[in-house]
Amino acid sequence: MSPQPLISLRDINKIYGQPPSEFHALKDISVSAHAGEMLLLMGPSGSGKTTLLSIMGCILSPTSGQIAVAGEDMTAMNRHQMARVRLKHIGFIFQDYNLFPALTVLDNLLVTLRLQNITGRKAKDSALASLDAVGLSGKTGLYPDTLSGGQKQRLAIARSLVSEPDIILADEPTAALDSENGQNVMELMTALCRTQGKAVVIVTHDQRIKRFASRVALIEDGRIKEGVQ
After folding, report:
1. Has this prediction a pTM greater than 0.70?
2. Domains of the chain (ranges plus CATH)?
3. What is the pLDDT at residue 16?
4. Residues with Cβ within 8 Å of residue 106, at least 6 apart in sequence
5. CA-to-CA distance for 200 and 39, rounded, in angstroms?
């Protein structure tokens, strides 16, 4: 484990609204993830898990607290600067896949690379390598609606990996999958985490995947109720 975490949050608070009707969604949360480890954020609905993941991904700004991503202090950055760091260092995996239905499997990855001005042969080689890593090398010309749920999630994983981010953030990646496909996806993510040295943070209700985690944080009412194990 590297001495410096790839992502680190300290004393994070998130408050919605104004007194007297304000809602304190996150309360003094400190958590980090290092290269090569998988952190699960678990807890009941409304506990603040997804809000915390959004702050980790620099999609949502905290009301107070400090965030560091790949050694860069995000606290004083503007939206443009945060977007640059997010694009460079963070890959996202969504519960509903967020694939482009009108694009082929290959083009779903190429459009992500285009956002980083990576095109041509280099982009295609990167996309094909990512698809091969998740076992979809034979599906390049297919469209998402022809894929099974497990294959769609594998495509979502490939898309998150194609730009070679340091950090992968996943929101309920096994929620829509049966036990077998859920296990296959988690085995794939664990292997990628270990072999590529990425920090993987997963928000989940799925008790079945706890055994894959390096550490687990239980969140309730906006606080970490059990220390990050």
Report:
1. yes
2. 7-226 (3.40.50.300)
3. 95
4. 124, 127, 128, 131, 140, 141
5. 6
Cα 13 to Cα 52: distance, rounded to the nearest angstrom: 9
Integer Cα distance of 229 and 217 in angstroms: 7
Provide the sign of the torsion angle of the four alpha carbons 134, 2, 59, 38, taken in this order.
Answer: positive
**pLDDT, tens digit, 9 for 90 and up, residues 94-112:** 888 899 999 999 999 999 9
Cα separation, 68 vs 151, whole angstroms: 33
- Angstrom distance (rounded) from CA 78 to CA 103: 32
Structure tokens at 8: 């680190």
Tokens 């919605």 belong to which residue? 16
Alpha-carbon distance of 205 to 41, in angstroms, equals 9
Token output for 162: 């194609």
Contact status, residue 104 vs residue 142, Cβ threshold 8 Å: yes
Residue carrying the six token digits 């297919």: 142
| b/e code 39-66 from CB counts within 10 Å (16+ = b) | bbbbbeeebbbbbbbbbbbbeeebeebe
